[in-house]
Design goal:
Structural class: alpha/beta
Largest sheet: 4 strands, mixed
Oligomer: single chain
CATH topology: Spore Coat Polysaccharide Biosynthesis Protein SpsA, Chain A
Strand content: 5-15%
Strand order of the largest sheet: 4-7-5-8
Number of helices: 8
Distance between the termini: 26 Å
Radius of gyration: 16 Å
Number of strands: 9
CATH architecture: Alpha-Beta Complex
Number of domains: 1
Helix content: 25-40%
Length: 229
């Protein structure tokens, strides 16, 4: 499942690395003004296009999750930073018993050529705060490359708009008691265009989400029967 906004130039690279046996590609388009949708259809004629009525990455993911039909949902960014060739290792973690396969740039085998020192520091501080407050052991809180069994969607229940969505998902996964397996992933540089991420603005939104979820009621999780083991 790929959220997009004016990513036409990046899609050829993104689609080229997606495994050929992928069940479906769901592309959520946030009202792109370039040829994103047309390019996606040229690259993969069976692509399922979902229009985004709201704005922001969280809103796009929520729309995409509702449209997905497979047993496993993989979240993949459209800027070329996430390598679709890594998808099998995420799926393997799920098949081996995890409910949620969480990409990490900061465990052995992972890395990043894109993250700045300021973003690295912010991620480290926010990861430590979530680990302290929620009893988790996350090494990389703010990374968007993840996969999970579709049965886990009721526990995740995305209801935010922006880049804080990864934090929201990670916290709700922990609150639901789901089994998490961290998967090493390497983040490449964005190929074309500029990111909509704003370090301090979105960092504040992440911090607000951390404390909002701490005050909230526990999430009632669905039992992920597919991943039983």
């Amino acid at each position: 499942m790929i959220p997009t906004l004016n990513e036409a130039r990046n899609l050829p690279h993104v689609f080229a690395n997606i495994p050929s046996d992928t069940y479906e590609i769901v592309l959520v388009d946030g009202n792109s003004t370039d040829d994103t949708v047309e390019v996606a259809r040229e690259l993969y004629p069976d692509v399922r296009i979902v229009g985004q009525s709201g704005r922001g990455k969280g809103d796009a993911l929520a729309a995409g999750f509702r449209a997905c039909r497979g047993d496993v949902i993989v979240m993949l960014d459209a800027d070329g930073s996430a390598n679709g060739a890594e998808i099998p290792r995420f799926v393997a973690a799920l098949v081996e018993g995890a409910d949620f396969a969480k990409g990490s740039r900061f465990i052995e085998g992972g890395g990043s050529s894109d993250i700045t020192p300021v973003r690295w520091l912010g991620n480290a501080v926010l990861s430590g705060l979530v680990n302290l407050l929620y009893g988790t052991r996350y090494s990389d809180l703010c990374y968007g490359y993840n996969a999970f069994w579709s049965d886990c969607l009721p526990a995740i229940n995305v209801d935010c708009d922006g880049f804080e969505v990864e934090t929201l998902i990670n916290i709700r996964v922990a609150k639901a008691g789901l089994i998490v397996s961290e998967v090493p992933s390497f983040e490449e540089d964005r190929i074309h265009g500029e990111s909509n991420l704003r370090t301090f603005r979105d960092g504040f939104r992440v911090l607000r989400t951390i404390f909002r979820e701490l005050r909230g009621e526990p999430v009632i999780a669905a039992v992920p029967t597919t991943a039983a083991g």
